[in-house]
């Protein structure tokens, strides 16, 4: 009936491309591009149209259909589906290109490398070895037309039309009847001489020699041309000559030919072939072998073809991570291969793996992800960052490994533009405040200040007003000199975010205190910042109409464009805990300043020996700072109203030489060894401010309106109870050190590396008076208790013999 008459071609799940056939090889088949209807994935479709009177060719096509369907080998064209009707034959395979077309296209693009050719020939010879040695089949059609190339650059052996059994079953070889294919037949088939006594592989190895000649020299004009190797590499010529020898018994077995070419110095003995062979057997390799392979793979990827990296190496890397527990070693080659992908492919293949990696507890993987974040951050969208990545990244702020804490801080510079309001202005600020106040590593505290200055433009106006001034003021009281420099540079880099009132009442008093800092570099930066702030204030004072223009960014919404001025104001400090952290990450590197001979400054006298720092996770490899002293300014900028964006604010690494001997333990307070330092109000204010932030969850109260100092709670150990030792004689000729010695009238001589907080100067005397009063009360109480005990003992009288004392 009519409903049984269905068109099998129309119902076939694959469809031909409307494009014309691409370079169909000689023979009964026509090669078309196609796609799968359900998924749209590309395929290749070999089509044979049955013609009347061509029964012999039809039988050849049907035999090839059957052979391709039953033979499965990595180096033989992969069969996917097929259709056989009375009118046509369709054979669907993986998407491939004829070798001739592929070589021509690559020649126009610069030609194939010998590495690619060596691996391609290796694959064809391996396929022949499988057919001859394992299946006892003679291919009988090895030539350029029988070889195809897939999208990864892998060579596949096809053209199975004229294959026959080597054991004589089913008769002799079928007749080709196509001159283009018969020219590759060996000479012993043409003359009926006795030389026809040969090995079963002899004819195919002759044809392999013809294929090698054509790969390097182009189409073969005649058989006599085989005598001249032409452009065949010298390392391959001896083995090629064995293939095209007149005596068929001398031609080597395909397996022995591979062995000869893989010998030391052979054509197929190279890193590319070894990598491919390892990838083919990676599933049965030991974990230690996989680790070593992936560690060495990254070095070789630069010399490998792009298609090979995208379509063969990348799937293996993803599989190794997903199922092979390869861990962090796959990250470096994975991101290297990712450079060859477009944005859509990167989103589909790399990003899901990266998101999954961030949830890993493996420290090595976490730190490598943080270090290489700049390679994939552009492909991450904001919802993914806020919901799947940031919640895992913030755990690094609490990690016990300093290197992870440091890399987590640095990564915020890349993540900040993509964070939402809550994560950026609340969660991140909480972690930054805790790191700046409590972290025992000075460089991490310094880097926190650096990062805050660089992401300040992304913060909301209310957060900027509440956080920036307080945070940078706190940094100026840090015993780690580069942190103090970072605080000054932070003020400078974010100058456009402060009102004139804040500049006059909050910022300049802090900067003025640093003008007598023991470190000259801190003083230099402080003076420079003071001059610029004063110039800004003076310009507004002379022309009040400029106020609106100067303060236009104070209440503006967060904007990425506002961060340009802070992009290169400082480099990262180096912790010395890991060689991985010694690389400076700069958003927009500036030209290197001219080299100047800067003498190494000794640590200021009166400072103690460096306190023992916590033992780092790995040996110190970057213990010395990379100093880059900025060139001295030759002109005063007093006439400049606003030159902050053009100012080179130097690099924090220039503090290295002066602070190497002062690497402090933040928790021990060993930064002051002279008696006056213990009672320094700046020190007390810093500790109390940091502690109060933990309780209140805000940076804000550091800069509330001044109020009378409150007495410390009972049980607080006062600084006067410590034995700080006496002052040491000093012969250092530094007028600023002498200035620092007379900060308080009537106080004994001392040197304070933290600066002087003028707004809390009276609190020291109050605390000392109260301490003395408490001591006297304790003494009186003790004497009263002793008197009462004596009276009680006297009232009872002596104890009688044999009685028991009852308390």
UniProtKB/TrEMBL annotation:
<feature type="compositionally biased region" description="Pro residues">
    <location>
        <begin position="601"/>
        <end position="617"/>
    </location>
</feature>
<feature type="compositionally biased region" description="Basic and acidic residues">
    <location>
        <begin position="741"/>
        <end position="754"/>
    </location>
</feature>
<keyword id="KW-0175">Coiled coil</keyword>
<feature type="domain" description="Protein kinase">
    <location>
        <begin position="14"/>
        <end position="314"/>
    </location>
</feature>
<protein>
    <recommendedName>
        <fullName>N-terminal kinase-like protein</fullName>
    </recommendedName>
</protein>
<dbReference type="GO" id="GO:0005813">
    <property type="term" value="C:centrosome"/>
</dbReference>
<feature type="compositionally biased region" description="Basic and acidic residues">
    <location>
        <begin position="781"/>
        <end position="794"/>
    </location>
</feature>
<comment type="similarity">
    <text>Belongs to the protein kinase superfamily.</text>
</comment>
<dbReference type="Pfam" id="PF00069">
    <property type="entry name" value="Pkinase"/>
</dbReference>
<feature type="compositionally biased region" description="Acidic residues">
    <location>
        <begin position="632"/>
        <end position="656"/>
    </location>
</feature>
<dbReference type="InterPro" id="IPR011009">
    <property type="entry name" value="Kinase-like_dom_sf"/>
</dbReference>
<feature type="region of interest" description="Disordered">
    <location>
        <begin position="590"/>
        <end position="807"/>
    </location>
</feature>
<feature type="compositionally biased region" description="Basic and acidic residues">
    <location>
        <begin position="764"/>
        <end position="774"/>
    </location>
</feature>
<dbReference type="GO" id="GO:0004672">
    <property type="term" value="F:protein kinase activity"/>
</dbReference>
<keyword id="KW-0597">Phosphoprotein</keyword>
<feature type="compositionally biased region" description="Pro residues">
    <location>
        <begin position="18"/>
        <end position="28"/>
    </location>
</feature>
<feature type="compositionally biased region" description="Polar residues">
    <location>
        <begin position="668"/>
        <end position="691"/>
    </location>
</feature>
<feature type="region of interest" description="Disordered">
    <location>
        <begin position="14"/>
        <end position="36"/>
    </location>
</feature>
<keyword id="KW-0963">Cytoplasm</keyword>
<keyword id="KW-0333">Golgi apparatus</keyword>
<dbReference type="GO" id="GO:0030126">
    <property type="term" value="C:COPI vesicle coat"/>
</dbReference>
<dbReference type="GO" id="GO:0005793">
    <property type="term" value="C:endoplasmic reticulum-Golgi intermediate compartment"/>
</dbReference>
<dbReference type="InterPro" id="IPR000719">
    <property type="entry name" value="Prot_kinase_dom"/>
</dbReference>
<dbReference type="GO" id="GO:0005524">
    <property type="term" value="F:ATP binding"/>
</dbReference>
<dbReference type="InterPro" id="IPR011989">
    <property type="entry name" value="ARM-like"/>
</dbReference>
<comment type="function">
    <text>Regulates COPI-mediated retrograde protein traffic at the interface between the Golgi apparatus and the endoplasmic reticulum. Involved in the maintenance of the Golgi apparatus morphology.</text>
</comment>
<dbReference type="InterPro" id="IPR016024">
    <property type="entry name" value="ARM-type_fold"/>
</dbReference>
<keyword id="KW-0677">Repeat</keyword>
<dbReference type="GO" id="GO:0016192">
    <property type="term" value="P:vesicle-mediated transport"/>
</dbReference>
<keyword id="KW-0931">ER-Golgi transport</keyword>
<keyword id="KW-0813">Transport</keyword>
<dbReference type="InterPro" id="IPR051177">
    <property type="entry name" value="CIK-Related_Protein"/>
</dbReference>
<keyword id="KW-0206">Cytoskeleton</keyword>
């Amino acid at each position: 009936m009519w409903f049984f008459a269905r068109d099998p071609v129309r119902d076939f799940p694959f469809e031909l491309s409307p494009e014309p056939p691409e370079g169909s090889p000689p023979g009964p088949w026509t090669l078309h591009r196609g796609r799968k209807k359900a998924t749209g994935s590309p395929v290749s479709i070999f089509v044979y149209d049955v013609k009347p009177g061509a029964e012999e060719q039809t039988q050849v096509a049907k035999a090839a259909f059957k052979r391709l369907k039953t033979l499965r080998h990595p180096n033989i064209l992969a069969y996917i589906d097929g259709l056989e009707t009375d009118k046509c034959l369709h054979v669907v395979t993986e998407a491939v290109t004829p070798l001739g077309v592929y070589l021509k296209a690559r020649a126009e693009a610069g030609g194939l490398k010998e590495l690619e050719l060596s691996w391609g020939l290796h694959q064809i010879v391996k396929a022949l070895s499988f057919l001859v040695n394992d299946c006892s089949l003679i291919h009988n059609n090895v030539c350029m037309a029988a070889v195809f190339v897939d999208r990864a650059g892998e060579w596949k052996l096809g053209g199975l039309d004229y294959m026959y059994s080597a054991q004589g079953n089913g008769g002799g070889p079928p007749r080709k009847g196509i001159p283009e294919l018969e020219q590759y037949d060996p000479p012993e088939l043409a003359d009926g001489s006795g030389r026809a006594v040969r090995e079963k592989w002899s004819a195919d190895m002759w044809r392999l020699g013809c294929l090698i000649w054509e790969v390097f020299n182009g189409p073969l004009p005649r058989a006599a041309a085989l005598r001249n190797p032409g452009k065949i590499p010298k390392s391959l010529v001896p083995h090629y000559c064995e293939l095209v020898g007149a005596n068929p018994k001398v031609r080597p077995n395909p397996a022995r030919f591979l062995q000869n070419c893989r010998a030391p110095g052979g054509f197929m003995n190279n890193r590319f072939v070894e990598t491919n062979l390892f990838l083919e057997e990676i599933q049965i390799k030991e974990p230690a072998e996989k680790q070593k392979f992936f560690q060495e793979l990254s070095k070789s990827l630069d010399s490998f073809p792009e298609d090979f990296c995208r379509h063969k190496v990348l799937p293996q890397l993803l599989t190794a991570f997903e199922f092979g527990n390869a861990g962090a070693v796959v990250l470096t080659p994975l991101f290297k291969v990712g450079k060859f992908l477009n944005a859509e492919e990167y989103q589909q293949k790399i990003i899901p793996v990266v998101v999954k990696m961030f949830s890993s507890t493996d420290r090595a993987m976490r730190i490598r992800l943080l270090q290489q974040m700049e390679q994939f951050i552009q492909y991450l969208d904001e919802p993914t960052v806020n919901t799947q990545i940031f919640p895992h990244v913030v755990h690094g702020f609490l990690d016990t490994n300093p290197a992870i804490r440091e890399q987590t801080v640095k990564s915020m510079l890349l993540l900040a533009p993509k964070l939402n309001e809550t994560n950026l202005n609340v969660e991140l600020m909480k972690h930054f405040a805790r790191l700046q106040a409590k972290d025992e590593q000075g460089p991490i505290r310094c880097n926190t200040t650096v990062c805050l200055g660089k992401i300040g433009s992304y913060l909301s106006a209310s957060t900027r007003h509440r956080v920036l001034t307080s945070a940078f003021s706190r940094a100026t009281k840090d015993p780690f000199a580069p942190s103090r420099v970072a605080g000054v540079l932070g003020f400078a880099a974010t100058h456009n975010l402060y009102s004139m009132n804040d500049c006059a009442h909050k910022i300049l008093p802090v900067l003025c205190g640093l003008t007598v800092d023991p470190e000259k570099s801190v003083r230099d930066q402080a003076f420079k910042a003071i001059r610029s702030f004063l110039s800004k204030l003076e310009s507004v004072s002379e022309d009040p109409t400029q106020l609106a223009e100067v303060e236009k960014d104070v209440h503006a919404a967060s904007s990425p464009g506002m961060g340009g001025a802070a992009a290169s104001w400082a480099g990262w400090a180096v912790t010395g805990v890991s060689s991985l952290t010694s690389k400076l990450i700069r958003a927009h590197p500036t030209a290197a300043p001219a080299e100047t001979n800067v003498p190494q400054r000794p640590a200021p006298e009166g400072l103690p020996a460096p306190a023992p720092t916590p033992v780092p996770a790995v040996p110190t490899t970057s213990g010395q700072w990379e100093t880059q002293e900025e060139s001295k300014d030759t002109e005063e900028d007093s006439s400049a109203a606003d030159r902050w964006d053009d100012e080179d604010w130097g690099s924090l690494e220039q503090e290295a030489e002066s602070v190497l001997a002062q690497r402090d333990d933040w928790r021990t307070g060993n930064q002051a060894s002279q008696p006056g330092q213990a009672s320094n109000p700046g020190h007390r204010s810093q500790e109390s401010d940091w502690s109060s932030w933990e309780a209140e969850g805000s940076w804000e109260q550091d800069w509330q309106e001044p109020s009378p100092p409150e007495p410390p709670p009972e049980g607080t150990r006062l600084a006067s109870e410590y034995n700080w030792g006496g002052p040491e004689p000093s012969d250092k000729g530094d007028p600023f050190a002498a200035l620092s010695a007379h900060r308080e009238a009537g106080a004994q001589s001392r040197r304070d590396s933290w600066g002087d907080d003028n707004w809390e100067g009276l609190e020291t005397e109050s605390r000392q008076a109260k301490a003395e009063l408490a001591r006297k009360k304790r003494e009186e109480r003790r004497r009263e208790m002793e008197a009462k005990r004596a009276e009680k003992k006297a009232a009872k009288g002596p104890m009688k013999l044999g009685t028991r004392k009852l308390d």
